[in-house]
Design goal:
The chain has 165 residues and is α+β, with helices and mostly antiparallel strands. It has two domains: 114 residues, Rossmann fold; 50 residues, no CATH class. Helices cover 47% and strands 14% of the residues. Helix 4 packs parallel to helix 5. The longest helix is centred in the middle third of the chain and has 18 residues. The mean pLDDT is 92.
């Protein structure tokens, strides 16, 4: 799981390295291999940032470390909960490219929860539109966005996207 508020998802008084190590040990056991330097490299950050606390990192750096923590346990599926909503546009783009690259390279799938249809359009192969906790429409992202079948989906798409055919 990668959370929306990355800094709050880490223990505030522990270093990033300590928090990642604790997560891996809890999920995979004390003897699980862990290469913190490789994790930092994988998310494009300097290795020495592992020795800092969450408040000593920028929002983008902290979100990259949250991705590193999630990938440290070699998951088959990542659950990404609004992971770019607290970031500026530049950081959002960097995080989305990083996530796409990591998923492609590791053959990991991602479930991306977001209210941002522009992000969904760029990142996701399939989309599920929900309203009040109920599934309204689902299918290939391009198809659902370009030709929504349900009135709610059409209203949602029309309110946030300018679609070019």
């Amino acid at each position: 799981m990668i959370f929306q508020n990355a800094p709050a998802s880490f223990h505030p008084r522990r270093t990033i390295a300590e928090s990642i190590t604790e997560s891996v040990r809890n999920l995979r056991g004390r003897s699980a291999p862990l290469d913190l330097a490789s994790l930092a490299d994988r998310v494009g950050l300097q290795r020495e940032l592992m020795d800092r606390t969450p408040r000593q990192l920028s929002g983008g750096q902290c979100q990259r470390m949250a991705i590193a923590r999630a990938m440290a346990v070699e998951p088959e599926i990542l659950l990404c909960d609004e992971i770019t909503s607290a970031l500026d546009v530049s950081s959002q783009a960097q995080i989305l490219h990083l996530l796409a690259d990591i998923c492609r390279e590791s053959h990991t799938s991602a479930i991306f929860v977001s209210h941002d249809l522009a992000v969904i359009r760029c990142l996701c192969d399939r989309v599920m539109i929900m309203r009040d906790g109920a599934l309204v429409e689902e299918g290939p992202t391009a198809q659902v966005i370009r030709q929504p079948r349900e009135a709610y989906t059409k209203k949602l798409v029309d309110s946030v996207l300018e679609i070019k055919n």
